[in-house]
Amino acid sequence: MIDFRDDNAKTTNRKIDNKYIPLTSQEGLAPLSPYLNFDPSYLPPREPQYIFPEGAVKQRGRFELAFSQIGAACIIGAGIGGTTGLYRGIKATALAGQTGKLRRTQLINHVMKSGSALANTLGVITVMYSGFGVLLSWARSTDDSWNTLTAATATGMLFKSTSGLRKCALSGCIGLGIASLYCLWNNRNSFSQLRYGVNPA
Questions:
Q1: Could you report the per-residue pLDDT of 178-201, keeping only the tens digit for each?
Q2: What span, in angstroms and rounded, lies between the C-alpha atoms of 173 and 149?
């Protein structure tokens, strides 16, 4: 029997007890929490948990994405158009020999004109595409690559519908080509799984 009044006995007893204290609930599991008396390995993996209404999908639909797409198209168009206008304005004012306030005013005019024109064009195209996509999703009750291809083709044809049948068809083909590239890139994981999943035998 150990005499707890003896300091040496206390030290020896503490060393023996600490030596056999398990650090995990079972061998190979995560260490026990020093604050909670349970094994953290039994907890589910840390993933974001969201509450969705009954029957709702776990991703934003085309209608929700339309607002960000239209805004992004306008901003990108304004940036590209403004840069192009600045470049053209610098060349035009240099050839005309303009300097000072006159040149600065002309540069601002070039930037504003080109930026607003391209922003308006891309914004209108995106509004058309988003509208067709929302209508197709509502009519077919699904959102897949066929909606994207159809919406892009219809957008291209409608955008050039006043320029003649040939330009209308050409614009539709351009929209179809861009949408096809997007769908191929968006579904690249499915194609890779299909390629590696086929048994050559």
A1: 999 999 988 877 766 666 655 544
A2: 10
